[in-house]
Amino acid sequence: MKSRNLIILGISFFFILFASGFFFVVDQTKQVIVLQFGEPRAVHQTPGLKFKLPFIQNVVYYDSRVLNLDPAQEEVILRDQKRIVVDAIVRYMINDPLKFFQTTRTELALNDRLGRIINSSVRGVIAQYELNDLLSDKRNDIMAEIFENVREDQDNFGIEIVDLRLKRTDLTAEVQSNVFDRMRTEREREANLLRAEGQELSQKIKATADREKIEIIAEAEKQSNILKGEGEAARNMILNDAFAKDPEFFEFIRSMEAYADTFKDGSTTMVISPDSDFFEYFENAEGNNQ
Residue 92 — very low, low, confident or very high, per pLDDT cuts 50/70/90? Predict the structure, then answer.
């Protein structure tokens, strides 16, 4: 009984294994070509359980979703003779698996062949424009023109090109260096011009300030001299009036002030004749003349 069960189990396993060779599953994101000895026999683009002959037929799966193709960067000479590096990207779908299999077989082979077509179209179109066009609203028109050129070859590969974009349009390293050098030189020239204008303005302001300073000082000195002159005149007038009222008293006061100035430190020694007018009030309070 036990041996019989093992035999039934073995037969069932072999049957399931053999039956599985007749069927395969197509996923929603895939499409399939059935090959018999390397030749296409059927194409399945709808999901579900499909039939094939075991051992003599095999299946090849292709993605039914939108795929990306990013070809190598391309150096292009523009109409204004500027060199730029262009990096494009293409999005496509495999809509005819049989044609795709017959022309390229694999996505890697398609990337190589279609990439060369894209770069050729990019060179041919962009070379007709200037750098400013790529940086303006014309950029969309340029991409549309390249897109239409590339779409002309899509049926040859069994694909549908959905979109094409220019990811990057940069100047080459050499041109970038030259542009940066020119920009740096221009900025330095502008900076030097601004410094020179600032220096000139500074000198004008300083000259104006110095002139105003001299004028203010001169005017102040003028007013000072006028006031000093007026003060000296008033002083002399007062002294003259006082001297005219009592000349002897005024002379006495002046002599006392002279004595105070001469002997104020108490150590002054004078060698002078006793008959000198300087001592006229020493012997007589009314002076030697009395």
Answer: very high
| pLDDT at residue 17 greater than cutoff 60 | no
Q: What is the pLDDT of residues 33-59, one digit of tens each?
A: 999 988 999 999 999 988 888 888 899
Q: What pLDDT, on a 0 to 100 scale, did the predictor assign at position 42?
A: 92
Question: 78 in helix, strand or coil?
Answer: coil
CB burial of 65-81 (b: ≥16 within 10 Å; e: otherwise) equals: eebebebeebebebeee
* Domain 67-171 -> CATH class: alpha beta
Q: What is the pTM of this model?
A: 0.58
The helix or strand, by DSSP H or E, that contains position 171, with its residue range, turns out to be strand 159-171
Number of C-alpha atoms within 13 angstroms, CB side, residue 174?
Answer: 4
CA nearest neighbour of 263 among 252, 248, 279, 277: 279
Say how far apart CA 81 and CA 147 lie, in whole Å.
24
DSSP 213-230: HHHHHHHHHHHHHHHHHH
| pLDDT tens digits, 163-177 | 999 888 887 777 667
Residue 41: CB partners within 8 Å, gap ≥ 6?
34, 35, 57
3-class DSSP state of 164: strand
Give the domain ranges of the chain: 2-63, 67-171, 246-283
What is the pLDDT, as a whole number, of residue 1?
A: 56
Cα distance between residue 158 and residue 96, in whole Å: 4
**Mean pLDDT rounded to a whole number for the chain:** 83
Angle between helix 173-245 and helix 247-262 axes, rounded to 10 deg: 130
CB 161 within 8 A of CB 90: yes
CA end-to-end span of the chain, whole Å?
A: 182
